[in-house]
Amino acid sequence: MLLNESEKIHPSRKGLKSTIIGILLNALLAIIKGVAGVLGNSYALVADAIESSFDIFTSFITWVGLKTASKAPDEDHPYGHGKAEPLAAMVVSLSLIAAAILIAIQSIENIRTPHDPPAAFTLVVLALVVAVKEGLFRFVHKVGDEVASNAVKADAWHHRSDAITSATAFIGITIALIGGKGYESADDYAALIASVIIVFNAYRIFMPSFAEIMDKAPDGRLVEEVKEIALTVKGVQGIDKCFVRKMGFEYFVDIHVIVDGSLSVRTGHDIAHSVKNAVLQAKPTVYDVLTHIEPA
């Protein structure tokens, strides 16, 4: 049975739910880390709060991208609005880089300016943050895998970056407290290291999204599976070409099948529709199939 429209947009609803959960948790953590960082004299924790604030913005961008990508095709967008999803992921990755640059600049400034060491209670806050953000990363990334969404995965990596930033801050503050005089800037160095890690993660987010925008062939066995399905259709003698491109949560297939050259146009037309229906029934993530008939 072919999927109806409501079933096709179901993946976006899962992604939207995980994004909203992330926004709410980020807002709470940003406040906790910001207050603790100021009171505890830890710029690494303040930097962490800054990133959480960026996470709220980028999660909202993800939410908008998912909402737009889930819209049905219309007269102006006959292929749907799926490209909004990787575009959102690219915006998220660029925002990550911007946050990393801000953190790096302030970290260098703090390293050059003598200051008191952070308070010990900030370690408790950071330990809590690492646990929450790592758990959130695993939850959101699992959703991203389930719905095959680069935007949701990008949102997940934002949470992992936050966990990494908090972990490096924890190490830096611990060194500052144990080392005593002369080690006051350890947490600033930790924030600087975290900014480099954030840039690396941003690159990991950007490239798959850019590839999707450029209609790169999807990884995995999807193309081969589509060919195998088409070959099971009565009248199909072989496959000449098969192209697959991702559009948001779904895939569009262009396939050239080889049939007996003496068949009538109507019979060839029926075979083409049979190929399309077979692929759509077997692969729910495929939105449409354009079948071209090649005479043997």
UniProtKB/TrEMBL annotation:
SUPFAM superfamilies: Cation efflux protein cytoplasmic domain-like, Cation efflux protein transmembrane domain-like. Keywords: Membrane, Transmembrane, Transmembrane helix, Transport. The keyword Membrane applies. It is a multi-pass membrane protein. It is found in: Membrane. The chain crosses the membrane at residues 20-39, 45-66, 87-108, 120-140, 161-183, 189-206. Its main location: membrane. InterPro entries: Cation_efflux, Cation_efflux_CTD, Cation_efflux_CTD_sf, Cation_efflux_TM, Cation_efflux_TMD_sf, CDF_Transporter. Belongs to the cation diffusion facilitator (CDF) transporter (TC 2.A.4) family. This is Cation diffusion facilitator family transporter. It comes from Rhodocytophaga aerolata.
